[in-house]
Amino acid sequence: MKNPEIQVRRRPRQSRAKLTQEALQESFVRLLHERHAHEITIREITDVAGVGLGTFYEYFSKKEDLVALTIHQHVKTNAEQLKSYAQSLMELSTKLSFEGYLQQIIHFQLEQIQARQFLWAQTFLLERQISNIESYRKSYAMMVQMWRSILEPSIQDDEQLKHMALNMQRVCYGFVSQTLLVEPEFEEWKELEKDIVQSLGKLKFE
C-alpha cells in the first residue's frame, strides 16, 4: 500500500532544522548502499546521522516520509543542475544549433545520472513503492517545467512549448527509468544516449 503525500512534521525554516533533515536524508542514502530500503530502521538512520530518535519524529511521522522527501530532493537537485547548465550553454554558445543545444543537455543529464547510477536506480524503484499518484504527478510536473524553461528561449509558441516539454520528459524519463529499473548496473550509456537523441529527432521542433 502506497503512502500519502510527503508528511513533514516540521518545515525546515531555520538553518539548523534544514541541516538536520539533510543529515537524515544523507544517512538513509549511505545505508541504502549496504542493504535494501525496507531493511533499514529509523534507529539506524538516526545513529548514522548522529541525532536522537526523538529528533527524527520531530520532522517525520514514519520512515516512508523521509524516503519520499529524499526522492523529491534528489529529483529537484537534478532539475536545478540541468537548468543551470542549459543557461550556461545559452550564454556561452552563440553558434549552437537548437538540436546541438538539446544534445549537449541530454549528454550532461546522462553524465549526472551515470555518476550516481546506484542512487538513481534506487530512486526509480522506491518512487514506485513509496510515492502516491499525487506525489508522482508533482515530481513529474516539476521535470516538465524544467524542460519548458530549457526550451523556452527557442520555442515561442506556448502550445508547442508545452507539448515539446512534455515529450522531452516522456522520452528522457522513459528511457532512463526503464533502463535502470530493468538493469541497475547498466553500462551502455553511449548507446542509450544515441537512442534518446534518435528518438527526439523524430519529434517536431519547429
Automatic annotation (TrEMBL):
GO terms for molecular function: DNA binding. Residues 18-78 form the HTH tetR-type domain. Pfam families: TetR_N (PF00440). Residues 41-60 bind DNA. Transmembrane segments: none annotated. Keywords: DNA-binding. InterPro entries: Homeodomain-like_sf, HTH-type_Tx_Regulator, HTH_TetR. Gene3D superfamilies: Tetracycline Repressor, domain 2 (1.10.357.10). The keyword DNA-binding applies. PANTHER family: ACREF/ENVCD OPERON REPRESSOR-RELATED, ACREF_ENVCD OPERON REPRESSOR-RELATED. This is Transcriptional regulator. It comes from Acinetobacter johnsonii. The lineage of its organism: Bacteria, Pseudomonadati, Pseudomonadota, Gammaproteobacteria, Moraxellales.
